[in-house]
Specification:
The chain is of the alpha/beta class. The chain has one domain: 3-Layer(aba) Sandwich (Rossmann fold), CATH 3.40.50. A seven-stranded mixed sheet has the order 3-4-2-5-1-6-7, with helices on both faces. Helix 1 crosses helix 12. The longest helix has 19 residues.
Length: about 260
């Protein structure tokens, strides 16, 4: 059955959606069958993979409210073979309120994923930049959590809270949940700060840290506006090569485990 990885960090602007999009695309490029779930009401993963998020008939919102099936919600990507998506838009922001009082609301995404898990090698969930019910749903559905950390001064701020939330979910909702690892993003080799942040996190964090570091890269920043992952927009760029390296680490970690 497919490995389910939630990409989570309640701190915004750390490269979480960029990582979800491009890790998914690189895994698909490597021949893996991949489903990416856009669990963020901003819908940036959806638009970043080429969909008009305001013109979708079925999204994760309808799926979580039981108004469509997993098959209604699943869209094949036009640009990347082996890559499907459960899209989202701003409607998803209302789901948390509408789920109040619903029994077992923490398990809705898990139960939906179970229906199609065997069809995929990887399921990547892009979580919203907050520790809300959507994030709890994603963590309850996931096997592991991948945490992007931006190479900047406040990198560790809030990380303790995220890891505490992971432990709470593991204790109460998903006993198999583990931290997949930490990946450094937006690394700038020209500054001492990026190097200091990497060293600081390695000293203070008792978690697996991926060897691959994602640099600041103009092409990575441009790709979402064209609705394609970096592997399509500029397959030979440094950003594309680094996400391929990350995908390779993720693949081999599964084999090693």
């Amino acid at each position: 059955m497919g490995r389910i990885i939630a990409v989570a960090n309640q701190k915004g602007g750390v490269g979480k959606t960029t990582t979800a999009i491009n890790l998914s695309a690189c895994l698909a490029e490597a021949g893996q069958r991949v489903l990416v779930i856009d669990a963020d009401p901003q819908g940036n993963t959806t638009s970043g993979l080429g969909y008009d998020k305001n013109e979708l008939e079925h999204t994760l919102y309808e799926l979580m409210l039981g108004e469509c099936t997993v098959y209604d919600c699943t869209i094949e990507n036009d640009f990347v073979d082996n890559l499907d998506i459960w899209p989202s838009n701003i409607d998803l922001s209302g789901a948390e309120i509408e789920l109040i009082g619903m029994e077992n609301k923490e398990f809705i995404m898990r139960d939906a994923v179970r229906e199609i898990r065997e069809a995929y090698d990887f399921i990547i969930i892009d979580c919203p930049p907050s520790l809300n019910m959507l994030t709890v749903n994603a963590l309850t559905a996931a096997d592991t959590v991948l945490v992007p950390i931006q190479c900047e001064y406040y990198a560790l701020e809030g990380l303790t809270q995220l890891l505490h939330t992971v432990e709470l979910v593991k204790e109460r909702l998903n006993e198999k949940l583990e931290v997949e690892g930490v990946v450094f993003t937006m690394y700038d080799a020209r500054t001492n700060l990026s190097l200091q942040v990497v060293d600081n996190v390695k000293e203070n964090l008792q978690q697996t840290i991926y060897k691959t570091i994602i640099p600041r890269n103009v092409r990575l920043a441009e790709a979402p506006s064209y609705g394609v992952p970096i592997t399509i927009y500029d397959p030979k760029s440094a950003g594309a090569e680094n996400y391929r390296m990350l995908a390779d680490e993720v693949l081999h970690r599964g084999v090693d485990d």
